Request: fold
Amino acid sequence: MTCFEAHIDNFAVDFLRSKLFHITSFETANTLLNDICGINQFFNTDEELIDLKQKLQETESESAILDRRAYGDFQTNQELANRVVKYIAEKEAKPQFVLEPTCGKGSFVIASLQQFKNLIKLVGIEVYLPYVWETKFKILSFYLQNEAISKPAIEILHANIFSFSFQQLATQTKDWQTLVIGNPPWVTNAELGAMDSKNLPKKSNFKKHNGIDAITGKGNFDIGEYISLLLLNAFHKHNGQFAFLIKNTVVKNLLYEQKSNSFHIEGIEKLNIDSKKEFEVSVDACLFLCQLNQNPAFICQEMDLYNLQKLNTFGWYKDKFVYSIADYKAASEIDGISQFVWRQGIKHDCTKIMEMERCNGHYINKLKQEVKLEKDLIYGLLKSSDLKNKEQTSYRKITIVTQKKIGQDTQYIQRNFPLTYAYLKENKAHFDKRKSIIYKGKPPFSIFGVGDYSFAPYKVAISGMYKTTHFTLVLPDDDKPIMLDDTCYFIGFEDLVNARIAHFLLNSPFVQQFLKSIIFSDSKRAITKQVLMRIDFQKLYNLFSFNEVRFSLENIEEGEWKKFERLMGTELSSQQMTLF
Ligand SMILES: C[S@@+](CC[C@H](N)C(=O)[O-])C[C@H]1O[C@@H](n2cnc3c(N)ncnc32)[C@H](O)[C@@H]1O
Reply:
């Protein structure tokens, strides 16, 4: 049945109905329950006791189905919690103190009580009252069925983790073998913002991102990451283990930040789980496990939780953060700073109006309207999905490039291109709806990701949306450069020979292995500007002699190959100049 909106099984119902029948003081009830199941404060007031007794006399009551998204509510099934706890126990863990900081319906609490026989104290914290009750009922039922199992002092606290003082708890328990275990909320601060939820830490900007990072999304973080850091901070100098089910991206961030945090953790493991099966969600997640109070380690062993097969080792190798330490060791010789500046394609946030297809001499926009425009501001446009081939000379879509550089005045469109201006003006409302603050205070119909580089006729491009790491050579159409959208990255060249050499170098096994070694394939955007800027073209170029490349680079002369080296020098010095 349900009681206080929490599930309660027949063992607990029968016990509570019979034993509480004559009890009227919550303190007397607490003494009885503490004796039976170890929970210190089963009831907080007489009212709670009376309320529960009344509810137990009623017949089945339906629990309300609430929107629990703001609490990142994905309860761990008992089987998974048991599997995790068993794995920890096999590592010789003998905790005396267990902390489940967001204990939900208590799967990890029950698994720990069942597994660990040396427990002195167990603390569970949960913000949602029905889950607090459900955990207490489960513990009661567990001990009613397992009387012989020893009982630690148990506290299941109804509290908000963001205002809980862990330091105090850490001080009290510092001499005990500790296990911090759980599955913190799966939700990001941005998702909470969109829901207008207040379930956030007070210091939301705990990574100290600046305003620009907040705009570009770098300031977005997972609540699970905040909670992991909070607890590692409080307990990393305890002897014991830390075991959290978290998203893969959170583990990556924890490892990345370990360089500056230097938590006293080692034996770091990431054990992949099947989230679809366990939680019915398509989010890559895992068990993050580490030993506490050790010399800080900076690498993580990735495994499969179900068959314990070792998959990969990632983390810090010397001063670089890499996905595969083995691959990186083989390909690291080209790691450095790119001589060419990688650029992201054009961004306009107005697809309905700005992107069109050609049809019988006119254009059709996303609203299926026929549009007549001067050709001057029209360019072919490639998206990530168009970068599948070695070379690309055609395009499905076109776009209007309203500016040659960011912030350029757009009044010239009215003077020179009346058809284009009329179309843009007619649809101004679509542009005005753009939410991003990058468009605020900018000329009408502004775009981003545009500059001289956008008009380079030859480009070597890669998709930022797919997991593939091949590069496409983009050639102009009728002398007009083809543009890329903001899901792509590229470098631009004024002449075809240099573009072909760059294209050849980038598709060489050195770059392919290097990219595979540094990109985290489960990230939403595996390829980023940051990743591409690590390809040192000079070091890459030095790995080849002209004799080795002459057959692959047909019709390219030795002089042209050498000229490429000079171009790299020029690009590098112009990059350095822009720093002053
Ligand atoms: C992903 S669920 C996991 C629950 C439980 N640890 C388990 O493994 O089944 C996250 C839990 O965190 C709780 N929670 C969310 N925000 C919280 C907060 N601010 N303080 C305490 N608990 C919170 C939710 O109510 C939910 O029960």
Q: What stands out?
A: The two ends are 71 Å apart (CA to CA). Residues 69-330 form a domain with the Rossmann fold fold (CATH 3.40.50.150). The first strand starts at residue 2 and ends at 3.
